[in-house]
Write a structure and sequence with these properties.
- The protein is an alpha/beta fold and about 350 residues long.
- It has one domain: Alpha/Beta hydrolase fold, catalytic domain (Rossmann fold, 3-Layer(aba) Sandwich).
- The protein is about 40% helix and about 15% strand.
- It starts with 5 loop residues before the first strand and ends with a helix.
- The model has no long low-confidence stretch (mean pLDDT about 95).
- InterPro entries: AB_hydrolase_fold (IPR029058).
- This is AB hydrolase-1 domain-containing protein.
Length: about 350
Amino acid sequence: MSTSFQTLVVNATTGVELSYIDSGPPAAHGPYTTIFSIHGMIFSNVVFQQMMALAPTQHYTQGVRIVAINRRGFPGSTPFTPEELNVTLTGGSGDAEREVQVEARGHEIAMFIAIFIQKFDLPPFSGAGRPGGVVLFGWSVGAPFTTFAIANADTLPEATREVLRSHVRSLILYEAAPIAIGLPTPAQNWTPLVDSTIPASLQLGAFSQWVTAYFDHASTTNKDLDSLSWVITSPSRVPTLYEIPAAQLTAMIQLGPAASTDLPFLFFFGNQLLSTYRKAFYDSSTATLFPNMKRAVLCGNKTAAFGIAGLWAVEADQATSSPQTEVTYEMMSGTNHLGPWDDAAKVLETVIRLA
């Protein structure tokens, strides 16, 4: 597995490129499934390295390939232009301008996947239960970027749509907070990011430590938000951040400009986050374009409360928005928000099983 960034140009007109790390094709010959992973706030694509190390050689049917993409502004990927940054940080002039931004971000991810498929001749979807095809796996704030890609694929060139149609097999969201997909934030919500008693300059750093902790919830089955531990972490296990080797932690944690765009983005783009999530999950035109695409929402039962609240929020939203749509919900025992690192085998096996 290469740990150095490689890049793909995803917009020939603007020269925008996205960096990535690639576990490479599995050792076994024959068709294999490729997982395109999108990272969240603060944590770059290095957060997927533990999963990537397992992908090519584990006991999975034919092995899998993981390609972890860095979003715009993160190391190796093109920074936002001043105009793009202004819309992200301020919300711009209104919904029309924000929708242009979201379509652009979706096209960048979708084009990356389509170009990568063609460049490396990735195996297409070959049927349920068989290897082949691609998975879009969005972790935390990365989750809405996978829905952007799916929801805006209908405005891509026909040839690109056909590449995606023949390969996409599943869309999996891992611990997207309700706000990340445009659903209401629970009244109980607390994170260091919204605590005004913490100096603004320290909030991102405080969040990066707190969110990697483990939490003892009174219940994760009764769907009662008051049963979740919104603030206090568990003493039973050291937060993941403190166990990551220094070199990898330095590459993983981004507390500068790249990380500072995500929170205002969540606040200002609520309408777009909601509409793209619902289009990706429930829209009939999306089902026609991606006839093989499964949909799943995952979280751990020891994670920060927002992850569990997000899964419950999608369940409730599906019940009213599109009860006939099949969505799989799974809560993994003992896993926290850094599950892709701390419980990489469990998360990878779950993703493969649900794909």
